[in-house]
Design a protein that fits this description.
Layout: H1 2-34, H2 37-53, H3 55-58, H4 63-83, H5 101-116, H6 120-131, H7 136-143, H8 147-163
Helix pairs in contact: 1-2, 1-4, 2-4, 6-8, 7-8
Organism: Kitasatospora aureofaciens
Protein name: HTH luxR-type domain-containing protein
Family: Belongs to the sigma-70 factor family. ECF subfamily.
C-alpha cells in the first residue's frame, strides 16, 4: 500500500506543477474561445478535473496538448448545449397564440374526468381505438380479446361518454351520437 501512496503523491505533485506552469496558458486559451472570463475559468477547471482523472496516462505524452484538446472539447460541448436551450432576450416575441390554451386545458380535464367514469377495460379500449388510432382488430390483438368484445365494449363506453353531462356540444345540449369527441392527452 505504501508504493501506491507514493505513486499517487508523485502524480499529485506532477499535476500540481503542470497546473502551476500551464494554468495561465490554458485560461487564456479558454478566454479567447469563450470571450467570457468566468466561463473560461469553468471550462479550464472542468478540463483539469478530467485531466487529473487520467493523469497517469497523460504524463508520458505531451500533457499541454492533451489538456488543451480537452479545453477545446469542453468549449465545443458548452457551445452545443448553449445552442439547444432558450436564451433570455430583452423583448419577448409578439406572436398571438393560435388557440386558447386555457380552453384546451379545460377540455382535456373534462375528457380525463369522463374517461375516469369508464371501467378499466372500457377506458383502455377507447384510448387504444381513438387516441392510439388502432383498428378494432389491432385493439383486440393488443388486449388478447375477441374483436366482438372490442366492438361491444367500445359501444358501451361511447354511450356512457355521450351521456356524460359535462361533455356537451357547443350548443349546450347533451353530447349526441354525431358529436365528435377528440381524445387528446
Amino acid at each position: 500500500m505504501g508504493v501506491k501512496r507514493e505513486q499517487r503523491q508523485r502524480q499529485d505533485a506532477e499535476f500540481s506543477a503542470f497546473v502551476a506552469g500551464s494554468g495561465r496558458q490554458l485560461l487564456r486559451l479558454a478566454e479567447l474561445l469563450t470571450g467570457d472570463p468566468e466561463r473560461a475559468k469553468d471550462i479550464v477547471q472542468s478540463a483539469l478535473e478530467r485531466a487529473y482523472l487520467h493523469w497517469h496516462r497523460i504524463t508520458g505524452d505531451d500533457p499541454i496538448a492533451y489538456v488543451r484538446r480537452i479545453v477545446v472539447n469542453q468549449h465545443r460541448d458548452w457551445w452545443r448545449r448553449l445552442r439547444n436551450r432558450e436564451l433570455p432576450t430583452d423583448h419577448a416575441p409578439d406572436r398571438p397564440l393560435a388557440e386558447d390554451l386555457a380552453e384546451r386545458q379545460a377540455e382535456r380535464a373534462l375528457l380525463h374526468q369522463a374517461l375516469g367514469t369508464l371501467t378499466r377495460r372500457e377506458r383502455t379500449v377507447v384510448v387504444l381505438r381513438y387516441y392510439g388510432d388502432l383498428t378494432e382488430a389491432a385493439v383486440a390483438a393488443e388486449l388478447g380479446i375477441a374483436r366482438g368484445t372490442v366492438k361491444s365494449t367500445l359501444n358501451r363506453a361511447m354511450s356512457k361518454l355521450r351521456a356524460h353531462p359535462e361533455l356537451a356540444d357547443r350548443t349546450g345540449g347533451p353530447a349526441g351520437a354525431t358529436t365528435h369527441i377528440e381524445v387528446t392527452v
